[in-house]
Fold this protein.
Amino acid sequence: MTVTAPPYREHPAQAVPPGRILRYSFRERVVHWLAALSYIYCLLTGLAFWSPWLFWLAIALGGGQISRMLHPWIGLIFIAGVLQMYGLWARQMGITDDDRAWFRSMRYYIRNEDDKMPPVGRYNAGQKLLFWGFFVCGILLFLSGLVLWFPEYIPWSLRWLRYTAILIHASSALLTIGLFLIHVYMGVFAERGAFDSVIYGDVTEDFAKRFHPAWYKELFGSAPRRK
Amino acid sequence: MSQETLRIQKISAHAGAVPGEGTQREFQVCKLIDTTTCIGCKACEVACMEWNDLPFGQTVFDNTYQTMPDTRWNYWNLIRFNEHETEDGTLMWLMRKDQCMHCADPGCLAACPSDGAIVQYTNGIVDFQQANCIGCGYCITGCPFNIPKFNSETKRVYKCTLCADRVSEGLEPACIKSCPTGCLHFGSKDDMKYLAETRAKQLRDHYNFPKAGVYDPPGVGGTGVIYVLHDVTEPENYGGLPKDPHIPLTVKLWKGPLKWLGNLAMVGGLIGLFVHYLRFGPKSRDEEFETKREGEQP
């Protein structure tokens, strides 16, 4: 057993084993999964409405009618999660000069040559892009989704609202799918330890030093922390 | 619908081939509405409700000869009334029988995401199959004529069927049968076009309607309901009949280029990520970053 010795650095609900660093608080993890699971439901049912070749997804999830009925409600949970995330993270997501430098040297990141990357804080520029992409697209999906939810109440004279909403909803959904694929790939496959961190909340010090050195420095100063 | 399966040429949101496409020797049916001889008696409205067993609703009197402002989910056939002032200052009462136009290229069907909720028979009739309807209302967005109407109770959309049940038995639609002035005709598209053009010529040559013509809009591939109008250059006067109806541009973009672009990007993205993993692998292959739990040393 490693999770034994106090003192914890955080509230017991956010306790981490010695030698590890709390990366995501309990609240952050809950909000992440609230948004993630509701997004995945909307993604699957949305894809069913997107293409006849994927309509079986709606059948598998209880039928077309149920999917049509639940998709907007679950969408509301998703947008609530996105707004919570905005409250939690917006201030940490400002794009800095380092981030711009990060984008310029992204080819090294893609080749896993992370030591050639500019210093990264709690979030790297890609994560910030994901955040703002999901925030903006989330708002667009919400607004266009409201129109699509109740098409029968849009009067004929305002039909341009429906015409616009249908295109915005699909386009912004496609953008989030791109972000989502990369996010899942990075979190589950590419960065070992990242998926665990959004479940348990903590990462190893090596993880922090390697992928988020500026964040590590911010937490503990420049000197490596004694284990 | 079972016996009709082989008589279906288009199916909404259908993956793969359409069972009836090109398998039946059918001609296009067509309803001809001669607005110049309509007296606004509403017999067709009543006949529609009678034949289709539609539940009654409140009518709305607005000091005109129109039964209600718009068609409803349970009122598929509405005579639209307009008191039109002509160029010489005289008044004309324009009556137009409004209902589903049964487009050759139906916007409702193009927009529908539910397999088999909207079909087009080989005779051209566009029919909603409420059993397959999921109630999303995309057909409302796709239709350039404001025809599909949503029922909030059943969460389904309804509209004129061109009495597909009667037509399949060799009968004319109920509205046609009830018309007392003979302004409604039913037959093959070719016959109706000929009759309509003949009538329009008559109006031009002998009745002082030089702009008389036939409304069969090419923007939606032609329609299964065509009109003879006194003035075909201004169809809007007839209760908002659109001048150049077509499937909304955004619906076309959404179902056309965006769909292909999106599918390509999604599949390409998945392949790209997989190839990236094979080429570069994870950022770290050792176990050091994995969370160590019970029984393990940090």
In short: The mean pLDDT of chain B is 92. Chain B has two domains: 2-246, 253-289. Chain B is about 25% helix and 15% strand. The radius of gyration of chain B is 26 Å.
